[in-house]
Design goal:
By secondary structure, the protein is of the alpha+beta class. Helix content is about 60%, strand content about 10%. It is built from nine helices and eight strands. Strands 5-4-8-6-7 form a five-stranded mixed β-sheet. A three-stranded antiparallel β-sheet has the order 2-1-3. Strand 1 and strand 2 form a beta hairpin. Helix 4 packs antiparallel against helix 5. About 5% of the residues have low confidence.
Length: about 325
């Protein structure tokens, strides 16, 4: 490896450890660049662990064993002075040193016999079994991860569906309330028009009678509006103590789990009362409220959009919850 090639990689921004390992595995600049690009998404821990595992396998890899001794040759092997491990070849010693960091080796006259064909096959079979076991473990982990992701997806889908249904229910209640208010406004407008027509008609009648009385030399008839105003003023003075306006409704609610006493503002809707009960009863839905006397049942979006005052449940009422 040329020092200038390593400097080129370092100048390009690559880590020194990755650059050195890339040159070690490939031997030149262009293959090293390709190796760095192929492994850019892997962490240094993953890369170093893979390199360590490969070095460990190289120590006993039959493909890098020394050739069998020829006749007349002296049997030799290498021994690690630090851990005492015996190694057949220089390649295995280099692999052992890279994996462990040991750098002291001695020659030995003890021959380590090369693996027989049966031993080589057994070693290769062992490596295949390890690879198969690793692949099977990865498949199991992938299935478990897929199951966990599916559970998360199903939970998210249910939450979204519940939110949509709740929003649709709220929109239905709002639409019913708007329609009811429009009907009330229409009735009030018709009533005002009828009252104006009646007032205009009465004014014309009084004017005609006043003109007739003037022609006949009589006093004009009294204005009934003035008499009504005087009567109203007298009535208001007699009833100077105004009625106290009801602002709360006390409800005795008979549920499946017992009797519950609740107090709500009179403008609270039956839907909001149902939501409060559902929150206290672990989400058990409320379908209807029934009055015992007079007998009346409130159910559905239209009834649930009514306030307690509109439903006649103020200042107090007894309801059976179903």
């Amino acid at each position: 490896m040329a020092q200038s090639d390593l400097a080129v990689l370092l100048d390009m921004g690559f880590d020194k450890e990755r650059a050195e390992l890339a040159f070690k595995k490939t031997g030149s600049l262009n293959p090293a660049l390709q190796w760095l690009e192929d492994n850019q998404d892997k962490s240094w821990e993953e890369i170093s662990a893979a390199a360590t595992a490969a070095a460990e396998e190289d120590e006993t890899n039959p493909s890098i064993e020394a050739a069998p001794l020829k006749e007349g040759e002296v049997a030799q092997s290498l021994v690690c002075d630090i851990c005492g491990r015996k190694l057949r070849s220089m390649a295995q010693a280099e692999a052992h040193g890279e994996r462990t960091g040991h750098d002291k080796f001695s020659e030995s006259t003890e021959e380590i016999a090369p693996l027989t064909e049966e031993e080589k096959k057994a070693k290769l079979q062992e490596l295949r079994e390890k690879a198969a076991a690793k692949k099977a473990l990865k498949a199991i982990q992938d299935r478990e991860e897929a199951k966990a992701n599916e559970k998360i997806r199903m939970k998210s889908t249910k939450e979204v569906q519940d939110a949509k249904e709740n929003l649709a229910k709220q929109e239905q209640i709002k639409a019913a309330a708007k329609k009811r208010q429009e009907k009330v406004d229409d009735l009030a407008a018709k009533r005002r028009i009828q009252e104006k027509i009646a007032a205009d008609k009465e004014a014309r009648r009084l004017k005609a009678e006043a003109q007739k009385a003037e022609r006949e030399g009589r006093a004009p008839p009294p204005d009934p509006t003035l008499a009504a105003a005087a009567t109203a003023q007298a009535s208001s003075s007699n009833n100077s103590a105004p009625k106290k306006e009801v602002t709360e409704a006390r409800l005795r609610l008979q549920t499946a789990t017992g009797v519950v006493m609740k107090t709500f503002p009179v403008d609270t809707t039956l839907f909001e009362v149902a939501q409060a009960l559902e929150g206290e009863n672990a989400g058990v839905p409320v379908e209807s409220f029934t009055m015992t006397y007079p007998k009346k049942t409130f159910a559905g979006g239209v009834d649930f959009s009514k306030t307690l005052k509109e439903a006649g449940l103020a200042p107090s009422a007894v309801l059976i919850v179903k």
